[in-house]
């Protein structure tokens, strides 16, 4: 009786761990079609599948490979081993070469390094009187105190970002396409770097009289108040990143290392992506401090729009309707 039960368990285990040959068709000219041996129920099935494809293609880096299946005539990426929980005999998969890859951490580090270098260079040049006399847009607009404050705030923001990238953030994917390092850097090196032209008086499109009216209307006459609000937004942004790191580690311990799950706690119940929210608020305060400089306004508009779309994707993914910028309103 016991022996029969053990035999039955063994049969179930063998059925669960059965191995199947799967056909993999190439979607890239550089890759070849191949057959791979995948074991159903294996927690390393995805890694094994990619490694086998790599061996059939001159040991190409597995980080360059994207394994997909067809659903409604669309290629759906396979990101988790549980896809192979039930291997079908007629399963057809596809493989694509994503091209040269670069680590996510390196991409983020390079992106955030841009504003630090650009602002440091242009700020130092703006303090040189001979250089300033040659290129300054309007000598009457030269405000060394305001320039210094703006420069320090930019450094605070991006040094914080660099430290978070090195010590705090964890990335679900190991790499991204190499081209992205140039595409993503444009936003920081060029759009944010252009704000540094303000050190030479460029981009101040509003007169002092108009700005005085705006500041009175906003009841934010005190520069120290605006700086405090900027630092408060930066602090909240750091806290949210820390919270996300802790939550991510907890999810990993539960075996959920890849799929993002909504946090239903505290401020996350009010804002779908509070890290984006306080990022935007930081640049709102910076823009007000820097006298609504045109380049700061452009950077704020582009950044806020992009983060809004990212936040709405999270709402759709989580099935929530949480606010982006102001709780219960927007």
Folded structure, characterized:
- The protein is α+β, with helices and mostly antiparallel strands and about 325 residues long.
- The chain is built from 10 helices and 7 strands.
- It has helices spanning about 1-15, 45-55, 105-125, 130-135, 145-165, 180-190, 210-220, 225-255, 275-290, 295-320; strands spanning about 20-25, 35-40, 65-70, 75, 90-95, 100-105, 175.
- It has a 5-stranded mixed β-sheet, covered by helices on one side. Strands 6-7 form a two-stranded antiparallel sheet.
- Strand 1 and strand 2 form a beta hairpin.
- Helix 3 (about 105-125) packs antiparallel against helix 5, helix 8 (about 225-255) runs antiparallel to helix 9 (about 275-290) and helix 9 (about 275-290) runs antiparallel to helix 10.
- The radius of gyration is 26 Å and the shape is elongated.
- Average pLDDT, rounded to a whole number, is 89
Question: What is the first-to-last residue Cα distance?
Answer: 66 Å
- The helix tally amounts to 10
Unreliable stretches (pLDDT < 50, length at least 5) are 1-6, 11-16
**Beta fraction:** 5-15%
Task: Please state how the strands of the largest beta sheet are arranged side by side.
Answer: 2-1-5-3-4
Helix-strand string: HEEHEEEEHHHEHHHHH
Largest sheet: 5 strands, mixed
Shape: elongated
> How much helicity do the residues have?
40-55%
The whole-angstrom Rg is 26 Å
- Give me the count of strands: 7
Secondary-structure class: alpha+beta
């Amino acid at each position: 009786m016991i022996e029969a039960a053990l035999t039955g368990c063994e049969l179930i285990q063998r059925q669960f761990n059965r191995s199947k040959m799967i056909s993999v068709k190439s979607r890239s000219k550089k890759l070849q079609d191949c057959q791979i041996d995948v074991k159903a129920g294996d927690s390393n099935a995805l890694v094994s599948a990619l490694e086998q494809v790599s061996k059939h293609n001159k040991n190409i880096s597995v980080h360059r490979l994207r394994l997909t299946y067809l659903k409604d005539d669309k290629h759906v990426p396979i990101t988790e081993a549980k896809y192979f929980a039930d291997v079908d005999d007629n399963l057809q998969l596809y493989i694509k070469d994503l091209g040269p890859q670069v680590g996510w951490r390196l991409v983020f580090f390079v992106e955030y390094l841009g504003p630090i270098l650009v602002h440091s260079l242009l700020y130092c040049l703006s303090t040189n009187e001979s250089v300033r006399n040659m290129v300054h847009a309007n000598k009457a607009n030269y405000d060394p105190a305001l320039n210094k404050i703006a420069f320090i705030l930019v450094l605070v923001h991006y040094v914080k970002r660099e430290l978070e990238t090195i010590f705090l953030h964890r990335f679900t994917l190991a790499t991204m396409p190499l081209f992205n390092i140039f595409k993503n850097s444009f936003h920081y090196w060029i759009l944010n770097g252009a704000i540094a032209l303000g050190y030479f008086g460029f981009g101040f499109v509003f007169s002092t009289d108009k700005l005085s009216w705006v500041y009175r209307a906003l009841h934010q006459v005190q520069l120290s108040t605006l700086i405090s609000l900027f630092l408060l937004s930066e602090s909240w942004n750091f806290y949210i990143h820390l919270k996300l790191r802790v939550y991510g580690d907890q999810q990993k311990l539960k075996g959920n290392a890849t799929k993002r799950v909504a946090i239903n706690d505290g401020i996350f119940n009010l804002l779908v992506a509070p890290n984006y929210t306080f990022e935007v608020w930081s640049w709102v305060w910076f823009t007000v401090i820097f006298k609504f400089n045109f380049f700061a306004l452009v950077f704020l508009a582009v950044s806020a729009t992009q983060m809004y779309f990212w936040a709405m994707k999270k709402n759709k993914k989580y099935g929530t309707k949480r606010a982006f910028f102001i709780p219960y309103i927007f």
